Amino acid sequence: MADYVRRLIDPVIEDLLEEVPAVLLVGPRAAGKTTTAIQHAKSVVRLDRDAEAVAFRADSDSALKGLAEPVLLDEWQTVPSVLGAVKRAVDSDRRAGRFILTGSVRADLESETWPGTGRVVRLEMFPLSIGEQLGSTGSFIEKVSTEGLTLSGELPDLRGYVELALSGGFPEPTLELSERTRGRWLSSYVDQILTRDVLSQTGDRDPEKLRRYFQAYTLNSAGLVTEKTIYDAARINRETALGYNQLLSNLMVIDEVPAWTSNRLKRLVLSPKRYLIDSALYAGYLGTDVDGVMRDGDVLGRLLDTFVVAQVRAQLTAANKPCKLYHLRQEQGRREVDLIIEIGASKIIGVEIKSTSSPTSKDAQHLKWLKENLGKDFIAGIVLHTGPQIYELGDGIIAAPICTLWSNS
Which pairs with CB-CB distance under 8 Å and at least 24 residues apart come from 367-376? Predict the structure, then answer.
């Protein structure tokens, strides 16, 4: 495809298909999984099309035979038995590069007994990052760890970052639609998730209660709030809220960043921070626009935080070393770091996110505290901001524009 936007995860898929029999891409609906998987496949089976799914429902093992490999089995969750067929095919012939599976539901994959364990390598794929939209293959994490951060290209101001956050990373509305149509697409996306996709998973959810829960969750994105805060706001009980949370997590509409813990730090809060998977969902559900965000400091902070996490999350899957994302907070908010990027087993990058154009050393005080406590395991502290300059805030701690997340040179 001449107009294909290459994704950060493409080299990872290429490398895996050279060595393992099967790769499974899981991600939010409309994140671009199928388009990416097609680039690596010789045969494509769209299991969400009844005509193509009939044979696989009847006899998945037989239907797989004779197809040119790699075979893309798109939307596997509509014919779950195909996972078992892939397992059996791989067990009988472990040649590399045989199958690619894609899906927008990860519920069945959380089980330790799912049939692909040890046979299918699973990758999570998220909506487009800004770097991918601009054709940048640079890694913020690697830059921080090695040569340092640099700037290139257009430098947005605060309003520009809000515009980027509200446009989000779903490929169709971001790359192909006008701003007005994009808003309608996002609204429809959320509506379909809360009705059609939910019903396909459960068949018995109350759509009005679920909408209230999703609204409460959206308003608290990037927040460290209790479960009770959200289910009270949604006017539902705890059991129902936990069910909705798991359901939306399985559909990859929401995500939780766990709390980071260390025996070197005391009185750490263990609750996760809650996030929408893409900052554009603010616009899709709440109907807010740039002017509305600029007039509301709370929404502005949450939107930028959600946006930054989406950019970092997209890079983690493609990182050369295993990376995990956390947040850090002490009891009563004595110390708090927005993001902790853990590289390998122990190396740490701390990140603060500020909606100011010129952060000061005060904005870095919690990063300095973290550095003092972690010593050599602390790689760097970054205060991401909306201004145009990179500058030092202390030994090993710098202020850098948010756009260094995708700057190429």
Answer: 367/337, 367/393, 367/394, 367/397, 368/394, 368/397, 369/335, 370/328, 370/335, 370/337, 371/395, 371/396, 371/397, 373/262, 373/264, 373/265, 374/262, 374/264, 374/348
Q: How far is it, in rounded angstroms, from Cα 287 to Cα 117?
A: 41
Positions of CATH 3.40.50.300 in the chain: 10-124
Which of 348, 270, 350, 274 lies closest to 305, judged by CA? Answer: 274
Task: Give the mean pLDDT of 358-369.
Answer: 95
- Packing angle between helix 207-219 and helix 238-250, nearest 10 degrees? 80
CATH 3.60.21.10 fits 10-124, yes or no: no
CB 401 within 8 A of CB 389: yes
**For 199, what's the count of Cα atoms within 13 Å in the CB-facing half-sphere?**
6
Band of residue 306 on the pLDDT scale cut at 50, 70, 90: very high
DSSP single-letter state for residue 129: P
Q: What is the pLDDT of residue 115?
A: 63
What are the tokens at 234? 């949604």
Q: With contact defined as beta carbons under 8 Å apart, do 318 and 11 qualify? A: yes
Kindly tell me the sign of the dihedral angle through the C-alpha atoms of 284, 25, 402, 274.
Answer: positive
Q: Using a cut of 0.90, tell me whether the model's pTM lies above it.
A: yes
> How far is residue 403's CA from residue 196's CA, in Å, rounded to a whole number?
36
Residue type, 130: I
Q: One-letter amino acid identity for 159?
A: R
**Virtual CA dihedral for 185, 190, 194, 198, nearest 10 degrees?**
80
| 145-160 pLDDT tens trace | 877 888 877 799 999 9
Cβ neighbours for 76, distance < 8 A, ≥ 6 positions apart: 24, 47, 82, 83, 101, 102, 103
